[in-house]
Protein 1
Amino acid sequence: MLRAVQQVDKIPDDGLIDSDLAAKKFGASKTVTDQIKRYARLSKTDKSVSAEEIAGLLTLISRRSDSDLVMKIAGQDAARAEVDRTFRILKLGTAIPGSLGLKVSMKVASRASRNLIGIDLTFPGGQPHVVSPNGAFGDVQPIKCLFDAAAVAEILHVVTDFHGALAHTECRARGADSCVWSVISSEKD
């Protein structure tokens, strides 16, 4: 998430941005850079960030006017990194013709979604169906849902070549027991 903040807050090298304004860009701060390094060290040792710390990051990002963009970028980046890190060889499923390739791709997408964000991705009738059974994040649940949706959509796109859209049909923030996404369209380019 913080890498997405950095990306959105990146100061162009064109000299047109006032140095006072540039200093106020959170993503350009040393604090963000230090936290990204800390998270990288944790991931190399297979340690995780606490749910409370994640909720704090979500709260911080939710206060931004561009939080939707930040969470979309963060979800997409996290999905690509998970697929590349864990399933590089299995991504070849998209190159295997026919139903075998599709089955391999669906299995990889399901596993990547579960590993990355604890989401259950199934394919009833060959169409993606997503359920997020993990704990709620209270007031920041809507922004967490943006991250989850972007991550799953990117996993589906990268691994299965899915080009449809997912509708967030149920949400914990609206009183549901879990968050659920279903296919709107599954047309390919």
Protein 2
Amino acid sequence: MVKAGVLYLRDESRRNKKELMNTPTIYTAKVIDVNFGKRVKIVEPVNLYGCIIGNDCFIGPFTEIQKSVTIGDRVKVQSHSFICELVTIGNDCFIGHGVMFVNDLFSNGGPAGGDQTQWKKTTIGNHVSIGSNATILPVGICDNVVIGAGSVVTKDISKPGIYAGNPARFLKDIPS
């Protein structure tokens, strides 16, 4: 019988075998120390820890929301999104599938290595929709903004409207 984690050499009799690897440490997705509002819906698996999630929110599967994140009321966070520390999201927002927030700009040529003094914050206003697979660097985004799918937001957005591209740029006003 063939065993997982065992490499069998060319000898078809399988008498000569060599162990491939050690047993890994396996972590389970969890929800730890989260301050939830009312009527929050979560689809597991998720990693949520040390964050605040407002009323009537939805958190999709395979999402990670780290400590010191605040999410307002009526926010929908779709699957496979990553919201890192130092992010604040306003009310009535939509975060599409696979959206990535970044707090480390590698300002010293590489990762900060846990040096939080090098991390930067991100603030998202109210009524902001961020399309799937967008990347949000440490910025401020005002109220009433739409970010197109796949966009990379590298600078503050202070005018309501529709933005897209890499880097994201203003395209047009939101129709009334």
Protein 3
Amino acid sequence: MSEPVDRGPGAPAPGPPAGPDRGAWHEPTASERLRMLQQTRTIAIVGASSNPARPSYFVATYLLSSSTDYEVWFVNPREREILGRPVYPSLSDLPGRPDMVDVFRRHDDLPAVAEEAVDAGAHILWIQLGLWNEEAASVAHAAGLDVVMNRCLKIEHARFHGGLHLAGFDTGVISARRFLRNPG
């Protein structure tokens, strides 16, 4: 595992350097994904929704909970506010550089989002569960970004931090035994 990277302004992207010597993109290992989560401070959720039935809303709720210390920005040109926070029309409108861009968009939109993530100075492009786009991965990887595809950021964070329950939330219980209800 590599040494922690200084994540201050102008810090280099985590992982191998950009350019022709970087090699082809490969699916990151569990330890590489953990490193990405540990080095991330700011996350932009592209395709965030105010609809509680949407996966992006569930992930946003989790990322804003006390389980994480991330600064989270929402990106969606059709929304104004989500969970009491402002929503930005594009990555270029964010108040700062996102360390990670977490994407909830259609397959065909992913290469353009990858280019926006590169332009925004992101270090990681995280494409959500059920999505895989080699072109988007190639664009981001060639520019020096780490790329994760077909994985849920919330599930991965909870998995590494001991809070994954079958229903996808942290129960706070550390036991293999069932609790009996008090009948009274």
